[in-house]
């Protein structure tokens, strides 16, 4: 994908962002530095929620943001982690467009609501809703 614009963010579109793998050493490094709870540092650790979110974010940046001029995140509305993530888990990353509209204050600015998900097979392990802002190229 290259050169995505506001018109590419139509309700119902799904961006398949590829598969990311939860690396044990990265999980532990993150936990030691930012979230040193025993469950994240155990012999069989579970990933910190924000580490899991960062796996999705990396796939989003690589798969969409770097190909979309003038895209920025306008905020996040909610995050949930319905299932734990373990070392070695292969997670399918997706971004679904829930809806898009023009900004009332600035019609050159598009606003899109995004559903972020990571799935291990059929099981969702991360879900987030965020808003992105897109300015059409001039």
How would you portray this structure in words?
The chain has 138 residues and is an alpha+beta fold. It has a single domain, classed as Thiol Ester Dehydrase, Chain A. It is built from 3 helices and 5 strands, in the order E-H-H-H-E-E-E-E. The protein starts with 13 loop residues before the first strand and ends with a strand.
Question: What is the gist of this entry?
Answer:
The protein has 138 residues and is of the alpha+beta class. It has three helices and five strands, in the order βαααββββ.
Which keywords apply here?
Thiol Ester Dehydrase, Chain A, 3 helices, alpha+beta, 138 residues
The H-level CATH homologous superfamily, spelled out, is Hotdog Thioesterase
Instruction: Report the mean per-residue pLDDT as an integer.
Output: 92
Task: Bin the strand percentage.
Answer: 35-45%
**Uncertain spans, ≥5 residues at pLDDT below 50?**
none
């Amino acid at each position: 994908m290259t050169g995505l614009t506001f018109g590419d963010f139509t309700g119902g579109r799904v961006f398949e962002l590829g598969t990311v793998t939860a690396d044990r050493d990265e999980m532990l490094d993150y936990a030691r530095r930012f979230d040193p709870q025993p469950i994240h540092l155990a012999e069989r650790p579970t990933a910190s929620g924000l580490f899991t979110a960062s796996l999705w974010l990396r796939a989003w940046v690589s798969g969409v943001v770097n190909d979309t001029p003038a895209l920025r995140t306008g905020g996040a509305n909610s995050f949930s982690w319905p299932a734990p993530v373990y070392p070695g888990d292969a997670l399918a990353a997706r971004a679904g467009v829930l809806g898009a509209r023009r900004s009332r204050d600035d019609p050159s600015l598009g606003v899109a609501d995004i559903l972020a998900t990571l799935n291990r097979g059929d099981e969702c392990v991360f879900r987030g809703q965020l808003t992105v802002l897109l300015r059409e190229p001039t």
